[in-house]
Predict the structure.
Amino acid sequence: MTTTRQKAPVLVVIELKGGLDFMNTVIPYQSGVIRDARPNVSLPIEDALPINDELAWHPAAKALNALYDAGDVAVVQGVGWENSSRSHFRAMDIWHTCEPDVIATEGWLAKVTREFDPGSANPLTAVSFGRGLPRALAASGVTVTSIANLDQFGLMTKVEVEEERTKDLDSFKRMYTPGVGSGIVQDYLAQTGRSVLKSADMLADVPSRYSSGIEYAPNSIAQALRDVVRVHTADLGTRIFYTQHPGYDLHANESVTQPQLLTQLTEAIADFMDDLRGQDASQEVTVLVFSEFGRRIKDNGSGTDHGSAGGAYLIGDGVAGGLYGAYPSIEPKDWLNGEDLRPTIDFRSVYSSLLDQWMGIDPTAIVGGAFEQITPYAGKVGTPR
């Protein structure tokens, strides 16, 4: 889809909490090695949705497969970093701050928010849906609005707003004080949330202004993406949206649970894109989907344990769809630590490509260096820059 209209580019982030099994999403479905290593979670060949002669989508991702076939999904293969961590907290902290070697105090998207709104004039430049504020959006002096329930947010009294703010800040404090220390957290808490009342006032009539024929499923990620559309189409100047989909830490029962999660996720993304397109609001939006790490190559009986390389997904009308990066070798001689997929592309390369080619800003200071870029935005007409 193309259009002559040019609006400021918008980024929507979907964080998959727990560690999505990349090998059970984009599957080397013809590989005997994988079938032998994963007798309990491998998908029958006949059920896979082929991408090419080697790789296939899990059938639960059929909604994403349709977007991929339309050329609107870039699959980035083998995403990770050197000496990756298998700790949920540390791995996600690295993704959020772009600092694999030290404990950092500023989130990468908070730095982007500061670029767009250096004086924090608009509390809706960055909006997070869900309880608490992700580290990616946290930095001293950066104002971000966190919304647990959009329908109620604009109707809250001043007392209720303060109660909501306290819940969010308490959640942030519990989560991040062990990693960065109480002093830094207290400094952040002292300045954040000051514009909550202004945000609530700006968002008060957003739900009533939204109209759509799309019926989103009654699950958390679908409802969050519906809220993204509602705020985005209200033209309130939001440049970054953040959402989360939990449940991917599948040490057990993976063959049942992951298909349920993939169905929720991919159908929500498809509805989201249909909704945006129906409101002539898709051209300026890119979606980034990521998870903290992939899973180990061998299954553990009914699930898979924490691994290294995974994948990321860029979705939108401006995306030049296809496979990017190299799928990690699945030959046993190449396994990292004798059990993991070896990363083939640094996650900061994904961020750098997105920031430079889509958001139109220099990524170097944000990601902490110069990283080789992929080209997921090359060749599409009407891409915002």
